[in-house]
Amino acid sequence: MIWGSHTWRRRPVITRRGGRLVASGPPDVVEGEFPLKHALVFEWPTRQAASDFWDSDEYTEIKKLREGAAVIQAIIVDGLLSGVG
Question: Fewer CB atoms inside 10 A, N or C side of the chain?
Answer without folding.
Answer: C
